[in-house]
Write a structure and sequence with these properties.
The protein is α/β, with parallel strands linked by helices and about 300 residues long. The chain folds into two domains: about 240 residues; about 35 residues, no CATH class. Helix content is about 45%, strand content about 10%. It is built from ten helices and eight strands. The strands form two sheets. The protein has a six-stranded mixed beta sheet with strand order 2-1-3-7-6-8. The longest helix has 30 residues. The structure holds zinc ion (ZN). The site of zinc ion has 6 residues, from α6 and α8.
């Protein structure tokens, strides 16, 4: 996958994590600290340092800083997120609507989201409550290992602008998470949540699977439209994504719980289903082709 030399998104932030200790506590924390100061005479800065106790675990993560890192993974993520911004702006504009860009937080170890706290073990996830994609930095390493991707792709000759093997599989995962963001903007996630409350657990799980498959399809739509835009695909990239689609089942759409992001226990569709829906989006380049829910709701 070719990615160097393109715009990087300004919506990517890094979070040091620091073993899960919250450094800041956001606007909510500042307000609460202010109240504490008024009522109890507690120094607001002291209260902020114990922000976790004050605000609880459910506040959005603010232990973030503007990324200054120029390392490969951060730059790669910025470019892929920017690519999704370009494509989804285009698609929403065509539909007479406006796309609202999500944030993406790259974290080490642990992170606190509006959907709860998460660790590296949680895997990549999207939190609708803060419209943010969360990615652990170790995800890139693990993904290469899990997918058996080693070294450079054979046949890559144009050094300096050629992607490493595995790049597109990583981009696919980011595009899938952004697909959950699109579902949130379109009101699909809300509809699924409402419908899920009125049906049996098994039926609710089925809806979750359909939601996952739609995010796969949206990732395919993105890949097709981005290819039209910047011709970024290289030989073998689609196979890479299909391999990823069939092997990565541990992503999840985190729901606001106020506690930890709980690993879900439903399946994300069979490998075959995931590949099928990704391919459908890829071939059509059309959001309309991604109606996984047809007949289900
Ligand atoms: Zn997902």
């Amino acid at each position: 996958m070719k990615w160097q030399g393109r715009r990087g998104s300004s919506n990517v932030r890094t979070s040091s994590g620091g073993g899960g200790k919250m450094v800041g506590s956001g606007i909510g924390g500042i307000i609460i600290a202010g109240i504490l100061w008024l009522v109890f005479g507690v120094n607001p800065m002291t209260a902020l340092q114990t922000g976790q106790a004050v605000t609880g675990g459910g506040s959005s993560d603010t232990s973030t800083e503007v990324a200054t890192s120029t390392d490969r993974d951060t730059q790669f993520v910025k470019v892929v997120l920017a690519d999704t911004e370009e494509v989804w702006h285009q698609i929403f504009n065509e539909a007479g609507s406006t796309y609202k860009e999500p944030s993406l937080i790259l974290f080490n170890g642990q992170v606190s989201s509006a959907c709860g706290s998460a660790s590296a073990a949680t895997g990549p996830f999207y939190c609708p409550a803060d419209q943010t994609v969360y990615l652990d930095k170790s995800f890139f390493v693990e993904m290469s290992q899990n997918l058996g991707i080693t070294g450079d792709k054979q046949g890559s000759s144009d050094e300096g602008n050629e992607g490493k093997a595995g790049d597109f599989a990583q981009a696919y995962v980011i595009a899938h998470e952004v697909g959950h963001h699109v579902q949130t903007l379109l009101g699909i996630s809300q509809q699924v949540n409402e419908a899920s409350r009125q049906v049996t657990r098994a039926e609710a799980n089925k809806l979750s699977v359909l939601q996952e498959l739609q995010a796969d399809c949206f990732a395919g739509v993105w890949a097709q439209r981005n290819q039209e835009r910047v011709q970024f695909l290289e030989a073998g990239d689609i196979d890479e994504a299909i391999n990823a689609a069939s092997q990565i089942g541990d992503d999840r759409l985190a729901k606001a719980s106020g506690g930890a992001v709980v690993p879900d226990n439903f399946t994300h569709g069979t490998s075959q289903q995931r590949v099928q829906w990704f391919t459908r989006g890829l071939e059509s380049g059309s959001v309309q082709s991604c109606d996984t829910f047809s007949g289900a709701l």
